[in-house]
Fold these 2 entries.
Entry 1:
Amino acid sequence: MNRIIDHPILGSIDNQNTIPFQFDGKTYYSHEGETVAAALLANGVRRLRNHEESGKPRGFYCNIGHCMECRVTVNGQSNVRACLTLVEKNMRIESGRQLPNIVKRMVKEQ
């Protein structure tokens, strides 16, 4: 785990309950009250999605809700910011996928 267990200001999280959630079909555990981003980082997950056009991996950037780089799909709802969303028990999170480029496909077919 990559989680800070005892913070000088926020205190200790040793006594907090853990809850399961899934990311891309794999089960991980989060402390109650953690954001999706914090839980994924603590579990060693760095890639959240692929760029819609280029397919290049994307991860965390600002982690304060400004950049939209941490968009994931949560319980079927797409474009949810992981850094602003709290993990809920048995939440299903999926990484973003590269979208098919219809324009390129149409040009190739001509």
Entry 2:
Amino acid sequence: MNMMRSMKIFTGAVLITAALSAPAFSQGAPQTLSLTKVDPATLATGYRTSKVVGSAVYNAANEKVGTIDDLIVTPGDKVPFAVLSVGGFLGVGTKYVVVPSNALEVRDNKMVLPGATKESLKALPDFKYAK
């Protein structure tokens, strides 16, 4: 009887080992991951979103033309977009517009949108946040 029990335990252990060592296949499309090398020293010279959001935006004539309300990254685009609030006073009459973040330049620690005026930004289509 001891021999029979030992054989059952041995057979069970072999079956469990075989099941665990077989490759696992997931459903759906195979996934690949490609890593990008990032230089931490270069990255450290960038601007954190927590510091960018809320920043005033100036034009080339050093006139304030808006404020960065948010940064948005879409699934299909590689360039983030900046949502600017323009016009209004204390949130009343404020209009939101979107510009590619690469249109903004940093000059003397200021966010600059070359060629922009309050009027040109107000003429852009309204941006509405999805709920």
